[in-house]
Structure formats: structure tokens, C-alpha cells
Amino acid sequence: MESFVTKASASAQPLKNADELIDSVETFIFDCDGVIWKGDKLIDGVPETLDMLRSKGKRLVFVTNNSTKSRKQYGKKFETLGLTVTEEEIFASSFAAAAYLKSIDFPKDKKVYVVGEDGILKELELAGFQYLGGPEDGGKKIELKPGFLMEHDKDVGAVVVGFDRYFNYYKVQYGTLCIRENPGCLFIATNRDAVTHLTDAQEWAGGGSMVGAFVGSTQREPLVVGKPSTFMMDYLANK
Amino acid sequence: MESFVTKASASAQPLKNADELIDSVETFIFDCDGVIWKGDKLIDGVPETLDMLRSKGKRLVFVTNNSTKSRKQYGKKFETLGLTVTEEEIFASSFAAAAYLKSIDFPKDKKVYVVGEDGILKELELAGFQYLGGPEDGGKKIELKPGFLMEHDKDVGAVVVGFDRYFNYYKVQYGTLCIRENPGCLFIATNRDAVTHLTDAQEWAGGGSMVGAFVGSTQREPLVVGKPSTFMMDYLANK
Known about the structure:
2 copies of one chain form a homodimer. Chain A contains 9 helices and 12 strands. By secondary structure, chain A is an alpha/beta fold. In chain A, strand 4 (59-64), helix 4 and strand 5 form a beta-alpha-beta unit. In chain A, helix 7 packs across helix 8. Chain A is elongated, with a radius of gyration of 20 Å. At the A-B interface, helix 7, strand 11 and helix 8 of A face helix 7, strand 11 and helix 8 of B.
């Protein structure tokens, strides 16, 4: 399989024209935010470009670091914008987390603690993993009375951190306890983006802020599965 | 003025005994957590040691990175534990933030956005600075509807980040907007501790997690005013 990325880096000579570029590449990987859409608006020229590439038999992959939705939920977003894209053509960082755990044969009797939104939960469920946390922990508070101790599940073997508008101290402490105290517990980040585009009106603090909180409390660096990660490129190249 | 720290680093020879050490030092700087108390319990031997040092005319300073209380509130904690300590002998990171702003003549017509608890607010008020945020923003939520834009105060000239059990995404976004968009806005951390001891039953994710979130979203490094910072040592040496 040839991809845009491997071809572009393999070729030292600039390609003469767009046709030559298109002919030389088998797979086109598209970012979504700012490339396909901006917030909830389709970007001009996108449908024509995708149609043209499909008519030439190209493989298309749509990549997004936004982990709030699953591939299925992204499929609906494409549909709403008038684009027909299959789930297999979507690589969202929500899916990346589940795909990574699958790639390392993460034990099915272990659990995943999720700091993030619905997309991650849906993809973990689809992949057959047990999880806890997510939006459910958004309303939880800690009463710091003398002697108070937060219990945590010793079976958590991975903490997955992505963008989370319901981020709170309960989640920081719970995930930190798992990473610090459960032997071998993984610390996985869907992405470390400083900025995300939840609405098109302004830039929003991205998944990098949730991940940064755990870096601060655990003094550990996460394994990143979204863009830019070797896991993502390896996964797409081997698929 | 001589201090324990300058003396210890100046002397390459180990001091022969405790008496010689005590005689050679004018100021003793104590950490509080794990040195004076553990959670809400006084550590054995502390009252006798402090009485002995005071009887020799030593200057005592009690330093804590915990910014949830003001110096006055810490004074009450010492009192509860049966120790008589004046506000002037306490250097809490809540106070450090206000003292730092004073040291740089932070304009009184500018405002400080606070991610943290009551101690920081109380010290800013005492120093005559205008502030917003703090515990009040703990219940605020963001509705990410299409086109939604968070307004922020353009007069915020500094964001102070400390431990905050009411940490949430609203605060991350508000503080990030101030740091990113208000020209010259300062990013000040009371501390970057991974761990704090809010109860003695377990280790809690510390102020480093709140600070880490802002490092992730702003891609900027904070100025740290608590331990270990040159500001703190300079302030104590020059007092």
C-alpha cells in the first residue's frame, strides 16, 4: 500500500503537477477540522474533491483527534454535511484508544478508566473492553474531611485521557491513583492538542489540557494514540 | 541576614554537631506538611524544638505550597495545634502570588483571574488587587452550542493557578483565553507539586495538575512563586 505520507517523504523531487501527485498516491489521509469542516460548516470544494478522488479509485481516510464522538457518530456528522463516508474510512482518536488496546492484547478482565466523553466509551464497548468513568463522573465531588480516603478499582489497567468538558478534580484524583498505584497501569492520551474547535466562534482549550493535568500529578508522559503518533500511521499503513 | 540555606550551601565541611549548626544560623525555614504537621496532626517534638529555637532568638519562617489558605487562616491552624505563630512568620504560596504581583508593581486597574481557593483571594484582597474567578466559577458550565463564544475580561493581566478542588473546564477555558489573548497577561503558579496532603489518609493530586492543564492548553510555562522558586528565597532573604 502506498500512502500520501510515505510517497511525499520518499520523493525528494517536487511533483510536477496535481495530476502527477494524485496518480502517484493510493491513500489520501484527511484531517477533518479546518479541512473537511469548520465547526458545523462544510468547507467549499470538499464534495467535488472527494468525488474526484473516489472516481480515480483512491482510498480515503478521515482522521480526527476529537475523541468526543465514535466513528459511528462521526459517520452521522459526515452524513449531515451531505458526505457519504463509511465507518472504516474514519480514524478518530476515540477509536485509536480502543484500537491501541486491542493491538497490545489488553486483558479483557482488566478495566479502562476514562477521562473523556461518549466517543471513547462507545469505541471501548465495541472492542469488548470493560470501562468506568467518563461523563458519569462529571458530577462527582470530593469532600476532603480529615481521614478521607478515595477508594479506586485495583483492576484498572489503563487510563485513557481525551477532551472532556466535564473535567473535574474527582477524575484527576481517580485517574492519578490508578496510574500511580496499580502496577503496570497504562497512561494513554487520545491527543495533546492545545486547541480544539468545538464551535467555530473561537478556539477552545483542547485535550492537551486534560492530559497536562495528569502529567502534572503523575509526573509521567502519556502514550499518544491520535495525531501525531506512530501508532496511527502504523495502523493505517497495515490496514 | 544569614539563613540556614545560604549557610549550608556556603559550608563545604559538615558541621560537627547540632549546637554548632544552630549557633551558625539566624533564620530557620520550615516546611509545614510532614514537618510541622501531617494532615491535621501535630508531629511529635515540634513544640519543644520551636521553643528551643525561639529561646535562642532565632528567626522562624513557616513555608507551605498549599495555597488554599491565607496566612491568617494558617495562623489559626497553628493555633488549633497549640502553636503560637504570627502571620509574618508564615510564607504560604497564596501570599506568594500577591507578594509577587506587589513586587512587580502589577497595576491596580488590572485584574487577576484566579484558579484556586479562598486563600489566594484573601491575600489578593489584602494586597489591594482586583480579582475574579476562584470558587465562584466552580459551578459554571459551558454549553457548546454551534456559534457559542465565551467572553472574557480584557482587563485581566494575570492568571494565578493553584490547587483547586473545584477545578473544571470553564476555568481552563477562561484562564486560557486570558493568557492567550490579553497582551502581556502573566501566567503565575503558586506551585507545581504533583502531590498534596489534604487528608493524611492518602496522597492527593496537587497543584501541579491544575498548572499542567494550563501548560497543555497555552503551551506556556508558568512563573512559580512557591517552593522551589527564586522569588520565595529572594523575598525571605530581603525581608
